[in-house]
Design a protein that fits this description.
The protein has 478 residues and is mainly beta. 3% of the residues lie in helices and 39% in strands. The protein contains 3 helices and 34 strands. Strands 3, 4, 6, 9, 11, 13, 14, 16, 19 and 21 form a 10-stranded antiparallel beta sheet that branches. A 5-stranded antiparallel beta sheet has the order 2-5-10-7-8, with no helix packed on it. A 5-stranded antiparallel beta sheet has the order 12-15-20-17-18, with no helix packed on it. Strand 13 and strand 14 form a beta hairpin. It is extended, with a radius of gyration of 32 Å.
Length: 478
């Protein structure tokens, strides 16, 4: 007998006990917008699932287009940050931001009806297009104020994400105009015409290998990021090298060929070191130099400062949420692009590769980078009561042993051993130390020693453990 069963729906349920998520420090997101409940199993007490409204995931801040309650529906679907002080510029700032798909749903429905509003110091501008958006807002007025905040608000049904946020100084570091802004060198200009000026374009005419044109743009600061852009035409076989080094000899060098012809964009950061050390006579100069026989043109040359997410103070971290305690329980050293649990095995994606965790003997190594382990204990039960701590003990692997050269062999501290150590013990009232832990039946313990008193200011006479006979009235020398 054949039985036909109609399946109306199939639900995929998340039954893991630990979630991987992340935080973006300095950005403010109302926690009610991303504290979502889990999937529902018929007949169980599990709370129903809901798509988070605004949350961090996959290295981006996402608008999920969902909500948990009527209370959340009334909240602005927004995130914001106070901006750091920014120096005055001639032409102010503009904002560059990438709009992509929501991480969970994979949707990007930004349109005329579903949009993002960017607000800064009373100025609002709407984003209706996916991809890279350059917002023409006069940020200079905003940054002149005492405190400036930038916020992004999504419309009710928007599903999209925001990433690659950066501010761009709209001022061109080059002095545009005529050939008088540039200095041509590397050949006898009375007999040769390797580099010329035509219709506001820099023209290269079968230039020699020493032909160059440069402009003094002053000192660019270490750590600052810049975007170089220009229109380039080159005949096959030719190449032009752009370079800049500040007064300390720090900068960049980049070659462009006919394969790069068109509108060129090159972003670079002034590094903390550069090898080989450039010649002193080219420092603070932005130089275009040709290879022998190069013919082509350069036009519309711009160099603009880019204030990156790192300079804005965005610090991305990976943290773990544990449903048993209903809280965020630990920080991770690594920042994955994505992650998934399969058959009780944990995998993450990074750099276009799949990485399996807890699969080798080399601990604390993620994506071939080693990190130290650290545990911070927060003891806050009955916070109004002053506690007395006398010892610390733990069960685990080898503790750190500091070698003491005492002429005896065979004692536990005759040689140095790496392991666990308590770097600090601090409360709001006192500080203590533990030199090292002693092994007793596979348990490690030791007494907490008080902070060594070296100055009279280290003595707290208001503490209960400070005792005396009274007030000293006078002293007498015999």
């Amino acid at each position: 007998m054949t039985r036909i069963v109609n399946v109306h729906s199939i639900n995929i349920l998340d039954v893991t006990t630990e979630l991987q998520s992340g935080s973006v420090e300095n950005w403010v997101i109302n926690e009610s917008l991303y504290q979502t409940q889990r999937a529902v199993v018929p007949g169980s007490i599990t709370a129903p699932y809901s798509h988070p409204s605004v949350y961090y995931g996959n290295g981006k801040i996402n608008f999920g287009g969902g909500a948990l309650s009527a209370e959340v529906l009334d909240m602005p679907r927004a995130f914001s940050q106070e901006l750091p002080p920014l120096e005055f510029t001639v032409d102010g700032y503009s904002l560059l931001v990438t709009v992509d798909s929501d991480f969970i749903s994979g949707e990007n429905n930004i349109s005329e009806n579903n949009f993002i509003t960017v607000s800064v110091a009373g100025q609002d501008i709407e984003i209706h297009q996916p991809g890279v958006n350059l917002l023409n807002i006069n940020f200079q007025d905003a940054f002149d104020s005492v405190a400036s905040t930038i916020s992004f608000t999504g419309s009710t049904n928007l599903r999209a994400s925001i990433s690659n946020l950066s501010l761009i100084d709209a001022t061109n570091y080059f002095d545009p105009g005529n050939v008088g802004s540039w200095v041509i060198s590397g050949f006898d200009q009375q007999t040769e015409n390797f580099i010329s000026w035509n219709n506001d374009q820099i023209v290269f005419n079968a230039a020699s290998s020493e032909s160059a044109i440069h402009q003094n743009i002053g000192d660019l600061e270490v750590g600052h990021t810049f975007n170089l852009s220009f229109d380039l035409t080159l005949e096959p076989g030719g190449s032009i090298t752009a370079s800049y080094f500040n007064s300390a000899g720090l900068g960049f060098e980049k070659e462009f060929t006919s394969a790069n012809a068109g509108q060129v964009h090159h972003q670079f950061t002034i590094p903390t070191s550069y090898d080989p050390i450039p010649s002193v006579d080219i420092r603070k100069l932005f130089v275009f130099k040709t290879e022998a026989g190069t013919s082509g043109t350069i036009d519309n040359v711009f160099l603009k400062r880019v204030i990156t997410q790192q300079e804005l103070g965005v610090d991305i971290q990976t943290i773990s949420f544990n449903e048993d305690v209903k809280g965020w329980v630990s920080f991770k050293s690594f920042i994955p692009e994505s992650g998934v649990s399969l058959s009780n095995k944990y995998f993450t994606m990074f750099g276009g590769q799949l990485w399996k965790h807890n699969a080798n003997e080399q601990r604390n190594t993620f994506y071939n980078v080693n990190y130290p382990s650290r545990i911070s204990a927060v003891l806050n039960q009955s916070p109004s009561v002053v506690k007395n701590f006398s010892t610390v003990n733990y069960e685990g692997s080898q503790a750190k042993v500091t070698s003491i050269s005492n002429g005896y062999n065979g004692v536990y501290n005759s040689s140095l051993q790496e392991g666990w150590e308590a770097q600090s013990i601090t409360t709001d009232l006192q500080q203590g130390t533990i030199v090292e832990f002693i092994d007793k039946e596979n348990k490690w313990f030791n007494y907490i020693r008080g902070k060594k008193i070296t100055l009279s200011s280290d003595i707290d006479t208001s503490s209960f453990n400070f005792q005396g006979l009274g007030v000293l009235s006078h002293t007498q020398n015999n």
